[in-house]
Amino acid sequence: MEQFEIAVIPGDGIGKEVVPAAIRVLEAVADIHGGLGFRWTSFPWSCDYYLKHGVMMPEDGIETLKGFHQIFLGAVGMPRLVPDHVSLWGLLIKIRRELHQSINVRPAKLLRGLTSPLRDPGEFDLVVVRENSEGEYSEIGGRMHRGADEMAMQTAVFTRKATERAMHYAFELASRRRKHVTSATKSNGISHSMPFWDDVFQDVAQAHPEIATSKHHIDALAAFFVMKPQMFDVIVASNLFGDILTDLGGAIMGSIGIAPAANLNVERSYPSMFEPVHGSAPDIAGQGIANPLGQIWTGKMMLDFLGFEEMGTLVLKAMEATLASGVKTPDLGGKATTTEVTDEVIAYLRRRA
Ligand SMILES: NC(=O)c1ccc[n+]([C@@H]2O[C@H](COP(=O)([O-])OP(=O)(O)OC[C@H]3O[C@@H](n4cnc5c(N)ncnc54)[C@H](O)[C@@H]3O)[C@@H](O)[C@H]2O)c1
Q1: Which of 22, 172, 201, 216 has the smallest C-beta neighbourhood within 10 Å, fewest atoms?
Q2: Any signal peptide, and if so, which residues (predicted)?
Q3: What are φ and ψ of residue 66, in 5° steps?
């Protein structure tokens, strides 16, 4: 019996609704498998916590998380009460950085039973590998003066170590898929960091001669996501470009409520963190209609990372069967609740067991 200790951070808004739903699915998976178990420990770190304590997580929060195998997170943000840069940097980015979760992986696939907003989506199945530790999301910069003379500077940071790490991960992932990596660049407009990005991509590509490559400027690449997403297998992108592309990936699937993500510590020295792409959706929180599939797919990625790919594949099949049966939340044009979608996923898993 393999037992995993999982730290759970539901966070804010719909995070508190979709996380328990996905845990129910993972518990059903463990039950069906028989040799896999989870122990869930929940932490209340969120904007609510910030309003009570003045911090998003306690001082020893990172040390506490180090004691777990993995982290399962919902969504963080209550923009009406806590500024987003405070909630994001005080929890999410802090965890990603301090636990060296240097790669963010976000798949986008047209699942059976989904209707893409694209007129001709084809059968796209792609993964964005986003560099998650530096790039445009850097703490280097500042603001000076006030009023008409006010200025702000933010410095993007690209190191060879982190860039190579993301690219090697992308090539290794592609070697297990359709063997193609696309680089998201902007070396026509950003004249130092992006030519550097291109050089590193070329070096890493030479170490993986079996993988075909292409590169596109991020603006054209975003347009291709809409015009012909079928052309992509694995895409490697900087922190900001990857962030934007993956919301688009969620949108072309039919709803951002489906899109999953994993923040990976590839060295496995600290826990990785699994969280959906979507945020806390304050506009629908508390209504019981949040789509749980993004969080459930995130759970599938955790199963894969823990070495239970067969069970992960079964979860994705259960999601597709649920969508194909028409049990969908309102973001996908259906009438089902979070609980009804979750029940249907679990019922499929039990039927297939
Ligand atoms: N990883 C995270 O924790 C994360 C990610 C993105 C945004 N945020 C935060 O979340 C808050 C709200 O951000 P936002 O409104 O820009 O993005 P959002 O993803 O929360 O919502 C965007 C739109 O998508 C819908 N939506 C999102 N997830 C859904 C789901 N599972 N089911 C059905 N509909 C869903 C929402 O109702 C909303 O209309 C902000 O504070 C933001 O900073 C957090």
Answers
A1: 172
A2: none
A3: -60, -20
> What's the gap in Å between 278 CA and the centre of ligand 1?
4
* Strand extents, DSSP E, the chain: 2-11, 36-42, 70-75, 103-109, 125-131, 141-144, 151-154, 180-185, 212-217, 234-237, 260-264, 272-276
Closest CA to 6 of 67, 89, 83, 96: 67
Q: Ligand 1: residues within 6 Å at CB?
A: 14, 18, 75-77, 79, 84, 88, 92, 256-257, 275, 278-284, 290-291, 294, 329, 331
Interatomic CA distance for residues 174 and 189, integer angstroms: 28
The domains located in the chain, with CATH, are 1-102+258-353 (3.40.718.10), 116-253 (3.40.718.10)
Minimal-distance CA residue to ligand 1 atom 15? 281
Q: How confident is the model at residue 113 (pLDDT cuts 50, 70, 90)?
A: confident
Q: Which numbered atom of ligand 1 lies nearest the CA of 261? A: 1
CA of 205 to the centre of ligand 1 (A): 35
pLDDT tens profile 298-344: 999 999 999 999 999 999 999 999 999 999 999 999 999 999 999 99
